[in-house]
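Many introductory courses stop at the sequence. We go one step further.
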Amino acid sequence: MDRQGQKTILLVEDDAISILATVARLKKFGYAVVTTNTGEKSIQIAAGAGKIDLILMDIGLGGGIDGLDAARQILVLRTIPIIFLTGHSEQETIENARGIPCYGYVIKEPDDFVLQSSIEMAFDLFDAHVKVRESEGRFRALVEWTPEAIVVHRDGKILYVNPAAVALLGAVSAQDLVGRPILDRIHPDFHQIALTRQKNMLDNGVDASLAEMKYIQFDGTIADAEIRATQLVYDGAPAIHVSLRDITEGKRAEEKLRQLSQAVEQSPVSIMITDTAGSIEYVNPKFIEVTGYFLDEVVGKNPRFLKSGYCSPEEYSDLWKMLTTGGEWHGEFHNKKKNGDLYWESATISPIVNGAGETTHFLAVKEDITEHKQAEEKLKLSEKRLLRSEKMEAIGLLAGGIAHDFNNILTGIIGYTGMSERHADNNPVLKNNLQIVLAASDRAKNLVQQILSFSHQSVHQKEIIELTPIVMEVIDLLKAAIPSSVEIKADLQPGVKPVFADSTKLHEVILNLATNAVHAMNQNGILTIRLYPEIFHGVEYVQTGELTPGKYSVIEITDTGSGMDSFTLSKVFEPFFTTKAFGVGTGMGLSVVLEIVQQHGGNIHIESIKGKGSTFKIYLRASEGFDSGAGVKNPEKQYFGTERVLFVDDEPMLVTMAESEFPHLGYTVTCMSNGRDALEFMKKNPHAIDILITDQTMPGMTGIELAKEALLLQKNLLVILCTGFST
């Protein structure tokens, strides 16, 4: 071979792209290049008269003859250095090449230095067959300046280290290493592996495959290295050449990447990565668990498929504006799972930027907060109920006090008017006027009853009653009272269970809601009243509270009126809130309705759409196993008597009325204005009375206190306790 002229390399490769790339690099190095893509042609070229100085042989050639077989046949024909090209550094590949004298193995697509160095080393080694000393000199000059750490050892002792190896092992100079055992610089965990590799090389004449080992620097630091070992002749005797490349930082980076990957895969929150157009490239297992979508169902899609329709387009627009300007977005999504269930999640979405500061992807970290939102809503509902309860309690105290005083006034008005009516038989005009006063007083009495219901201070007469007759009675009353422009539809289903309730109060509730419905329709529309049974197997939440599992009787009132917006719905049961014009209503109606229903253990649910009407559903717990027990009211009758009555009240008007009215009814009456005077009278006049009628709320001594003391004096005394309100 002419070493002074241009070297010619035969490149045997069956990959067209690799051929083009390698030829360009070889020519750049100054070599002449001959190429072929089959083993058969390579044999023909090598056997010909053309000038070939070295062969780069792809081991994995296609066709009838692979690279190894072609090399064997070429070496039979002529002696020439061959370097094997391989796509990987597996032991199996090396084992297959055993017995073929070659001058190196090069992983495909090496950097320029490695490729050129391998070729030059092959030329040098080939020349060494002729002049060993000259070859070693060339080798030493080459490895002294190579950046790759090189160590030569024989029989376990280091013979040579290049400057790169001195630096890698942390030594001051080569003298710190030469003559010392090679195993001193290898971690004990890898001693046996190193010895086994060395033995295989010496016994079988093959180079050791690429491997990873831990080595020990002079200061005791343990690091990772990638090691390649080949045989060579050094100072006239066989030795082992070891090339080391430090991969500690790479291993650390690999470990950090592994940990990061595990953290993402095992994260308790959903993680999504999209490209800059929003197409999903990755989701972690938590995302799959939360949404029900598998990885292959979402990759390549835009996350918009999760939309539930509850988030406005403006929110998504703001999100993209923030991200496309390099900002980080924080917010909440109300999304939909694969099975259709809705869920809430708190999300942080941020851009992923490269080294040049360019956004390449978007990262979304999302936490399922559905349970938190449900608990939050439940807390808000509880707070609203508590606030309403506190309002009702405060207003109730005021209402009770007013009702007490008003009842006293009404008692005087009704009593004196009734007394006057009996003396007006000869004056029809006066009698009529007095009857009008009595009718107005009766309306006032009903108003007081509403106030007392509102303040929890009225006495309810509850019993097992059927709802159908009550609803029918209200419908008949409405037909007579409302204009014909309102059509009434009734749907009273059979099988509705009786309830334990005050029939009068339920009558008021239904009539109140129906009247409100007529007003909401401006006296023109369809009023539908339904009665039906319903069963709940779990807890149900309605606007005013919760319904426990069980059977319910439901009264439903629907109108085709103006409906309500969300603000009105949130305020509709508050005392004194009204949508009616000034002076049209007190605003107390629905709050009283709710109080009555809740006093009966029920609740109310409203469904309303602005402009389309409203539906009120009254849920009353059904009383199973009972028949209707509603009593029949006896007609009023006038009572007379001859008993002795002690009347006690701190209201002078009532005292005066009693002094006048009781004698008219045949009773003998003694009147007192306070409890202490009444008790003193009884002590001085034992058994002078048959009946004690006393007001409850009086200064000094209450009616109950007086009654207890009176019964101690007269065991069989009949006591009637009167009050403007009861608690």
